[in-house]
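As the next step, I wrote out a protein sequence along with its fold in token form, included below for the reader:
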Amino acid sequence: MAPRAHMSSGRLSQGLLLLWVLLGTGLCHTDAVTTSFSQNAGTSPPTAMSNGTAQPMERNYTYITQKCWDYFVDLMRNVTMEELCEWKVISRPYSELRSCLESWADHLNYSYPNALAEQYIFQSHHLYFHNCTLEHPVYFDPPEDVLLAMIIAPICLIPFLVTLVIWRSKDGKAQA
């Protein structure tokens, strides 16, 4: 496996990654088979399926997404269990994964978002972020039927209360 080159911004050099991918893809392969990515059980990415009519661009993108996933897993190895839900810590690896998937799809004229990229994003959430909860709960609007009941009930009570006040004030007894 080729060493990763880090730029001062912490991003993987796209030129070196492209060179690494092109040297490792084996562009002379003519048959496309179902490919299953396998690492250890805890970090295996989604399975990429390809049929016999797959274009070389799709195979290249599939290979590149595997490298994006490997880089993400490598970055996540530096994150402790206590830090998994801290956005300041995980934003870089998560953004690197998303950026890598998006930029290579764009570079290869492959649509984004696409099913394979979404599978990698979902896999990252399933493996790393499934136990994250919000410290402060986010409040949502109530369902529409409850909201309508809360609006209509006071509106309907107003005429009743006005009628009650008028009826009580017409009582023949003067209040002093």
Observations:
- The longest helix spans residues 144-169.
- The CA atoms of residues 1 and 47 lie 21 Å apart.
- Confidence is low (pLDDT under 50) at residues 1-12, 18-23, 25-42, 47-54.
- The two ends are 97 Å apart (CA to CA).
